[in-house]
Structures are given as structure tokens and as C-alpha cells.
Amino acid sequence: MIRQELVARQLDEAIAAQFEVGRRLRVLDIGLGEGNQALRLVRAGHQVTGLESDPALLDVVRGALEQEPEGIRERFRIVPGDGQDTGAHFLPGTFDVVLCHSVLSESRDPESTLAGLARVLDAGGLLSLVIPNVAARAMRAGRAADWEATLAALAASEDSDRTLRLDPLTSLLTRIGAPLERWYGVGVFCADDAPAEEAALDAEERAARVDPYRAVATSLHLCGVRG
């Protein structure tokens, strides 16, 4: 899917900007899901820990790992749990990179979740957040002239948690010691499940980093750096 490829390219860019080439990183993936980004990173040589609370998704990841060479399996650790549990599982400064992709909106307390993620980051570590762009959730329905869905999305946007918007999150990242370093849009033009065709990827990548396009993407990708 184009969404996964876009996030992967943006994450690679953020990692390249923060760490020396060839460094083997300690990565934590909160809300592992089907393990797309985690598997990609462990194949690249990094040490990855995945935290996931859904037993069915854990089975999916374990099944995928069984198909990997032994060296990759040895670098991938799976821990049952969610983003609220980082303090119970990990010491401060344990990881170089923490991924929190598309799960923060499900957190009981996004602010404490993010504070916990920043706590387990080492100095200079990268915090990668992917969140739904609630401020622009009516855009896709409006472009399709589905006015009933557009009005419903506008109403939902007005009622949504103000914490999960760019400006409040920027302030929050500063308060927890991982200020925003860069941010991207994910899905400016294409639906999340669109095929990852090269022309579409090129257009999305260019639009993902410039205003006003990135501000109306389906999701936002925020990268903070631990001070």
C-alpha cells in the first residue's frame, strides 16, 4: 500500500538526518500491528522490539517472523502490551527510535503515553508519530462530492480531541523533552490502500513536505528528537 511506503520513506529520511550511516539502532514499535515497519527495520539490521496488545495481530507477526532467516528472528523481540505499559517493561533511555504509528488516537491518555515514550528514548533519539489528521478529515469526502459524509466529517472534526492536532502536539512534544524536528503529510492525494505506483509516490512525497498540501493529508507524520 502507498501509505506504508510513504511512511517508510519519511522514516528513513528522519533516521538518516539523526544518526550516522550504518549505525545499528535499538527500535521500539508501539502498536506493532502486522509489523510492516518493524519487519522492514529489522531486515535492515536494527534491533527491534514490538509492543502489541491484540493477540490476533501478534499471531500475524509471529507467522511472518517464521518465514525470516534466523538472524532476523534473533533481532526481533515481541512483547504483549500497549503504549501505556512502557514504564513497566523498559528502563529510561533504552531505545534510539520509538515508533507510535496510528495508535495514539486509541490511547486512554495520549499525553501520558507520549511522556512514557519520550522517557524510554535515549538522548538524541527519534520519536516517530503517525496520527489521523482530524483537522482535515472532511477533505476526501468533499473532493468526492459526498456531501452527507463531508458534513458528518466536519462535525466529527469539531468534536475530536484537540490534543491530537499539530499545534497542541508540537507544544506537548516540547514539554516532554522531544521537540518536533520535522513533519510530513501522509496521503495528500491517494487513498491509504492505493497501489504504490512510482508516479503517485513521487507526487505524494513532494506534497508531503510543503504547505498547504501536507496540512490536508489524511494523516500526519511527526518526528521529535529527544534532547
TrEMBL record:
The biological process GO terms on file are: methylation
Q: Which Gene3D superfamilies match?
A: Vaccinia Virus protein VP39
* Gene Ontology MF annotations: methyltransferase activity
What are the record keywords, sorted?
A: Methyltransferase, Transferase
Q: Which residues cross the membrane?
A: none
The answer to whether keyword Cell membrane applies is no
The UniProt entry, under InterPro entries, shows: Methyltransf_11, SAM-dependent_MTases_sf
Residue ranges constituting the Methyltransferase type domain according to the UniProt record: 28-128
Q: What name goes with this protein?
A: Methyltransferase domain-containing protein
Q: What is the lineage of its organism?
A: Bacteria, Bacillati, Actinomycetota, Actinomycetes, Kitasatosporales
